[in-house]
Amino acid sequence: MKIAITADPEIPVPPRLYGGIERIVDLLVRGLVARGHEVTLFAHPASEVPCQLIAYPGRKSQNRWDVVRNAMVVSRVLTGKYDLIHSFGRLVYLTALLPVALPKLMSYQREPSVPQITKALRLARKGTLTFTGCSEYIAAQIRPYAPAYAVPNGVVLHKYQFNPTVATDAPLVFLGRVEEIKGAHLAIEVARRSGRQLVIAGNVPDDAASRAYFQQCIRPHLDDRQIHYLGAVNDAQKNELLGGAAALLMPVLWNEPFGIVMAEALACGTPVLAFPRGAVPEVVQHGTNGFLCASTDEMSQAVATVNSLNRVDCRRTCEERFSDQAIVGAYQTIYVQLTR
């Protein structure tokens, strides 16, 4: 097939550090090319992918003129003979393509905008616009208005080293954006209650609320003995960090659309202890690859029994459900159905 894929313009594909959606786009592009498909990617000009790259002229999705310019670039697909266009970027980038017969697949990696979806459906040629969600939690919100598949996120499996055993005093890990909704302060509480070391890794978003959160709720607890903060980490550091952890803590305070870090931990054989918000229960199988906890009390108690979980089962979950081969295969099956 000849497939066009769009990402948002802010972050290169693959990302250097943070960039969950861009990691999925990179995984998909490389997997499709390896399967013999011809792929064109619309993305940040610094992207490094094994396919044709068309660089966006605008870099900010919140800038109206940048959005218009980028949408005009994407509309050049009309001059080519593509079998399908798959968007991981703004739905507005597909505006010029909506009335034509080209099959269009829009993937939501966050909470969907129902008004945006219904407006796009009114503009689209009947039967040409389909959606996916990165979890059943997301896809179920779309289905009352449009056809939608659930395709989970995943990881390039060979990049993560499976570690079948860890030390009995291995640290707990929190890995993600250090902002209140991700619950790093609750991870600290769990570590304190369970008497375990905690390593926090991730970027602090560049906004006043996040900076204040870090200064008030995280920094006072950092002692470089029990509670450590590493900052943002690259893929090699992430692999080492997760592979040596007793568990990944996910005390999220929002409805997590998916949470790629859970798949990354499972790829290393590391169980996940999490609050059952959003798509978390679709990933964490209670008592098999982690524990679903209703409170920090329950999570602290789960830490004491986490060594009873089989790390082989954690890795197997990732291999079967969240590996790059599983994800690329799922999207390829949808492509075939949409292009019949």
Walk me through this protein's architecture:
The chain has 340 residues and is α/β, with parallel strands linked by helices. The chain contains 12 helices and 13 strands. The chain has helices spanning 20-34, 64-74, 114-123, 136-142, 184-194, 208-218, 235-243, 260-267, 280-283, 296-305, 311-322, 324-338; strands at residues 2-6, 38-43, 52-55, 84-87, 104-108, 129-133, 148-150, 172-175, 198-201, 227-231, 247-250, 272-274, 290-292. Helix 4 links the parallel strand 6 (129-133) and strand 7 (148-150). The N and C termini lie close together (12 Å).
Q: Within the largest sheet, what's the order of strands?
A: 3-2-1-4-5-6-7
The average pLDDT is 94
**Into which percentage range does the β-strand content fall?**
15-25%
Q: Briefly, what CATH class of the largest domain?
A: Alpha Beta
Q: What characteristic shape results from the CA principal axes? A: globular
Give the tally of β-strands.
Answer: 13
Rg, alpha carbons: 21 Å
Number of distinct helices: 12
CATH architecture of the largest domain: 3-Layer(aba) Sandwich
Spans of at least 5 consecutive residues with low confidence: none
Biggest sheet features: 7 strands, parallel
Corresponding CATH superfamily of the largest domain = Glycogen Phosphorylase B
User: How helical, in percent, are the residues?
Assistant: 25-40%
Number of domains: 2
> CA-to-CA gap between the ends?
12 Å
CATH-assigned fold name of the largest domain: Rossmann fold
N-to-C series of helices and strands? EHEEHEEHEHEEHEHEHEHEHEHHH
The secondary-structure class comes to: alpha/beta
